[in-house]
Amino acid sequence: MSSQPIHEARVAVSVEPGSYRIKRPGSADEVIELIKQHNIQIIDLKFTDLPGLWHHFSITLPEVHADLFSAGIGFDGSSIRGFQEIHESDMLLRPDPTTAFVDPAFNTPTLSIICDVMDPVLRQSYTRDPRYVARKAEDYLRQTGLATTCYFGPELEFFIFDSIRFGQDQHSGYYYVESSEGEWNSGRDEGAYGGGNLGYKPRYKEGYFPVPPHDTLQDIRSEIALTLLRVGIQVEVHHHEVATAGQNEIDMRFAPLTRMADNVMMYKYICKNIARKHGKVATFMPKPLFADNASGMHCHQSLWRNEENLFYDAKGWALTSQLCRWYIGGLLKHAPALMAFCAPTTNSYKRLVPGYEAPVNLVMSQRNRSAAARIPMYSDAPNARRVEFRCPDPSANAYLAFSAMLMAGLDGIENKIDPGDPLDRNIYELSPAEAEHIPQVPGSLEEALSALAMDHAFLKKGDVFTDDVIQTWLNYKRKREVEPVKLRPHPWEFYLYFDI
């Protein structure tokens, strides 16, 4: 978890003058200047599919001209998950010059640009482009007149493993994770790995903030953090996380909704590629290990009108405004439907179970990490006041998840939804009689999708989430994820039932 409050002024440090370029280009002309400055040879165009993975293709410098940033360039949309059918496959990408960055993953000098997806027939933004959904959410916020900006500060946790193997067919299925940090390797003969076993394996649930030699990933995290700075993403803190076997967290400084979703895509990309450079593998799968903590994406968020934080009130509970508490009310009321976007995998619900710091209880609190919505109390500064929604995980498509949370919060404000009394006790120590009255998040992706099917009117306000986006999401998740997992035997079922 971030040890510092967001929304407070900071100065970006620099080892050498000009070594970190926090400012990004703002126009096509500035992109051209960046190309000249870094002797760029290739332009890489990146965009996000509906589930939330980047795709790309590259062009050469003669193809970079003014029309590229206005008219766009064509691609086959039928080959992208959640996009077009084969009979309507032609699509356009329009690069956003404000997102250009020198790509750290390639040896050839390459400038990457995040693109918006366009419909070439309608000559307008494509409804199923996740980035378009995010931009519409920000537009809708401004149209309400409530605020000018929604800031997000997500805390993405992830694992760095030495290797991962998995497979399943008609007669077998397995996964195998390996990590030199894994507590399960405390008794392994590691002579074949370049020396004897040196111990110092973080114990289960005891991996939070250990120094080396327990923490073997400091240099890799530092390299990731410095690379993020170089591509224009300000980093606040990095550290080892609670789980054994290489769980990590690197916290980015808050940014407006769409920009932060762009940053999340860049963050995942850089983490994965730097891990690979070191012969390791990074994963944002929420629950890759049994019996230890999973990876979450706690989302700090606040509404601002120009320079004023609308979530602050010096006389309010936990220094929060009534508007903030209504926003929380919207998050809690719509949480079951939100989970379809915020915890969007079957694996997500291996994390959302009681214990393991899992925020399954739909209540608000100050400081209490067992609540779904909490008010961090690191600072009493007005600019630091925000709500931390703890249910999301890093498997989410950030564009869709952030947009859905904002829309739920705005619905809470519009309808003055009461979030209920704060619960500042340890929820896991409540008596059964007390606990049975506390609502919880869905217990499976299937339940979350059913909740979304029943509760999505709040998402459609301002045409932010269109019917085709919601229905395509429901169909994709049910047919491509829920049903295939249902059909396959689980290894533990053999333990339970083979001798029945």
UniProtKB/TrEMBL annotation:
Swiss-Prot/TrEMBL keywords: ATP-binding, Cytoplasm, Ligase, Magnesium, Metal-binding, Nucleotide-binding, Phosphoprotein
Recorded catalytic activity of this chain's protein: L-glutamate + NH4(+) + ATP = L-glutamine + ADP + phosphate + H(+)
One GO MF term attached to the UniProt entry: glutamine synthetase activity
SUPFAM superfamilies xref list: Glutamine synthetase, N-terminal domain, Glutamine synthetase/guanido kinase
Post-translational modification O-AMP-tyrosine, affected residues: Y428
Domain GS beta-grasp: 38-122
Residues binding Mg(2+), per UniProt: E155, E157, E241, E249, H298, E388
Family note: Belongs to the glutamine synthetase family.
Alphabetical list of NCBIfam families matching this protein: GlnA
Protein name: Glutamine synthetase
Biological classification of the source: Bacteria, Pseudomonadati, Pseudomonadota, Betaproteobacteria, Burkholderiales
Gene encoding the protein: glnA_2
